[in-house]
C-alpha cells in the first residue's frame, strides 16, 4: 500500500479515496450554533493534593465530559519544547524518502512501531486520506526502543520524553475525573490504565478536494482516555447534539476525549465521544494521539459506585478488555454496534437481563 506522503502532490482526489455521498463531510455551519465549542479548562493548581481550586477543576472536567465527552486543557505542565520536539521529529519521519520508510511499512499489529495508510476499520473498503504511525510508547522499554526508527536522529529521544510527559498528564486527568465522580483518586490507577500506552501519529497531506473524502472515519476510541496534540491546523470534529463541531486549535493546548471504557465504567454517566478528521486543501495536518488503556486481562464493567439512583441499574456486562478489542474490530469501530455487544438488554416479559 503506497503512502500518501510518498506521492507527488495530487491535483485531484483518486477514485479510491472518494467516499459515497452519504459518508462525505458536509459544509460546516457558520451560524450561531457553530460557536458552541468544547470547553478549554485551565489546569493551573491541579497538582495541589487538596484545595478549592483542585475541586473546581475536577468539577469542570466532569461537566465538560457529561456535555461533550471532549475538552481542551491548558497550563497542563507539559513543556512546549517537549511537544514541539516530538512533533518536528514525527514530521521529519513522514518527510523522509520512501526507501527509508519502507522497512517500517507493516499492518502487523504486534509490532511496536509501524507506518501504514488509511484505516483497517471499515467494512466497505473505503479509504481515508491519511498516513499514520502506530507506536507502543509507554512504558519505554529496550524492546520497544529497538523497533523505533533511528531517523530522524532526534526521533527516539523526543518520543521517549514526550510519551513520559503525556503519560504523567493522563494520570493527573484520571485522578481529577475520579475525584469529580466522588471516587477514590486512585480509582483508575493499576490495571485500568497500565496497559501499554499506544500512540497514533496521524499525517493528513493537503487534499485537492476535502468535500469528497475524510481524513479519518467517525469512531469512538477503544481505550480509557485520549490525549491529543493537534497542532495549529484545524481538522478534528466531535459529534454533539446531532451535528459535527470543529474542535478549533488552542495554542499550547491538549485535546482530551473519553473512550468506550470510561463510558462503561461510569455506567453511561460520561459518554465516549464520536469524532472524525476532515482534510484541508491548503495545509498538511499532523496530530499526535496518545491512548491510555487497560491491561488486556483487566476485568471491566460498571463501577459499583456508579450503579445508583442517578445512573440506574448496570447497563453493561462485565468483560475482559481483550474481548472488547476483538469486538471493536468485528464491529468496524461502529459506536453503537460495539457497545450493543456488551450492553445488558432488559427482557420486558420476565424482567431479567442478558448480555
TrEMBL record:
<dbReference type="InterPro" id="IPR005123">
    <property type="entry name" value="Oxoglu/Fe-dep_dioxygenase_dom"/>
</dbReference>
<dbReference type="InterPro" id="IPR026992">
    <property type="entry name" value="DIOX_N"/>
</dbReference>
<comment type="similarity">
    <text>Belongs to the iron/ascorbate-dependent oxidoreductase family.</text>
</comment>
<keyword id="KW-0479">Metal-binding</keyword>
<feature type="domain" description="Fe2OG dioxygenase">
    <location>
        <begin position="195"/>
        <end position="294"/>
    </location>
</feature>
<keyword id="KW-0560">Oxidoreductase</keyword>
<dbReference type="InterPro" id="IPR044861">
    <property type="entry name" value="IPNS-like_FE2OG_OXY"/>
</dbReference>
<dbReference type="Pfam" id="PF14226">
    <property type="entry name" value="DIOX_N"/>
</dbReference>
<protein>
    <submittedName>
        <fullName>Predicted protein</fullName>
    </submittedName>
</protein>
<dbReference type="Pfam" id="PF03171">
    <property type="entry name" value="2OG-FeII_Oxy"/>
</dbReference>
<dbReference type="InterPro" id="IPR027443">
    <property type="entry name" value="IPNS-like_sf"/>
</dbReference>
<dbReference type="GO" id="GO:0016491">
    <property type="term" value="F:oxidoreductase activity"/>
</dbReference>
<dbReference type="GO" id="GO:0046872">
    <property type="term" value="F:metal ion binding"/>
</dbReference>
<dbReference type="InterPro" id="IPR050295">
    <property type="entry name" value="Plant_2OG-oxidoreductases"/>
</dbReference>
<keyword id="KW-0408">Iron</keyword>
